[in-house]
Amino acid sequence: MKAKLMSLGFAGTAFFIAISLIKFPDEALKASIRGLNMWTEVVFPSLLPFFITAELLIGFGVVKFIGVLFEPIMRPLFNIPGAGSFVWAMGMASGYPSGAKLTARLRQEEQLTKTEAERLVSFTNSSNPLFIFGAISVGFFHDAQLGILLAVSHYGGNTLVGVCMRFYKRKDRSKRSIHERRSISLSKAFRELHHTRMKDERPLGKVFGDAVIQSIQTLLMIGGFIIMFSVFTKLLFLVGISQMISNFLEIILNMMTLPPELAMPMFSGLFEITLGAQMISDLDFSNMLPIAIILSIILAFNGFSVQAQVASIIADTDIRFAPYFFARLLHCVIAALLTIILFKPLYLNEQATQFQNIPVFAYEKTQIWSVLLEWLSTFGPILTISTLFIGCIILARRFRIR
């Protein structure tokens, strides 16, 4: 019965999208172009270098090397192997869905057990600093100090989620992990690196080509999700479903003593973070605390668009989606609490100091992120098209050789 209801739900959703596209072709086209611009200008050029570098580091055994060295830190703290430190760092630096992508790769390489992979993916998908500081704080709110509050709440909350998730199936620990924890040395780390490199018989050119192709394939999938969810969010607004659900969210916000005007932006942000943050910035509030709380919740939830990307990436493995989704709800609660606790020391006090003493520093801090965003908007599409062209050349040469 459950399977039949799911089939009916999927079919109904697809039918709704098809009818809505026919009824609102102009609005759907604009939403599609908006998602495409976001992908070509920001997502593709910002994630591509990280994806390619990660593939090379995995192929050359560097992740194995890092895993042995960081085992004493990651095992007691998060109950995962040391290789998880690489995923954690790359996830924070490059943003979602890098954590899911790298976790799936390590699971396929059998460097993680199923349970360890589910723990790892639950707290390594986070927004990157450029998005928090550049797009949201500076781009929408013109307030770099807000970015510091959001970043500390976001990354701190994700870390606490990882600590909580260490107790998920805590008795499920492989004998290999126990052995690795007892025998840690720099020489062993180098041996693991060398063994991994020698086991991979691909020449250097093949390794680099595979890294480029795999990264492009993943980013094309991500681009499809971004465009479709941009269109889907717009269609929900046009048919009135967004207003119905936002009315329900208004009740919840009233219970939390938060302004009900944030209901519609919050709903939009739960689907697509950028749209929700932009709608919040259009509101006129003198008190920034409610805005910071809702932004932290939206960032922590990742948005259904990112969650769909994660689900698609881990579908090729035995990693379950449920622990990741539970972690997102937990992250929402923790990030909101951290925002409330840190609002005065990290935002109000710092804002007063900047306005009274060093306003020039605040301006320069804002300028840095504005320049980065402008650079991506200018050269991002060029890098995207060039990389896709290079990927086509690599594939064409491989088919010719075959």
Automatic annotation (TrEMBL):
Residues 42-136 form the Nucleoside transporter/FeoB GTPase Gate domain. The keyword Transmembrane applies. Keywords: Membrane, Transmembrane, Transmembrane helix. Coiled coil: none annotated. It comes from the Bacteria. The chain crosses the membrane at residues 47-70, 77-96, 146-168, 287-304, 325-348, 368-396. Pfam families: Gate. This is Sporulation integral membrane protein YlbJ. It comes from Terrihalobacillus insolitus.
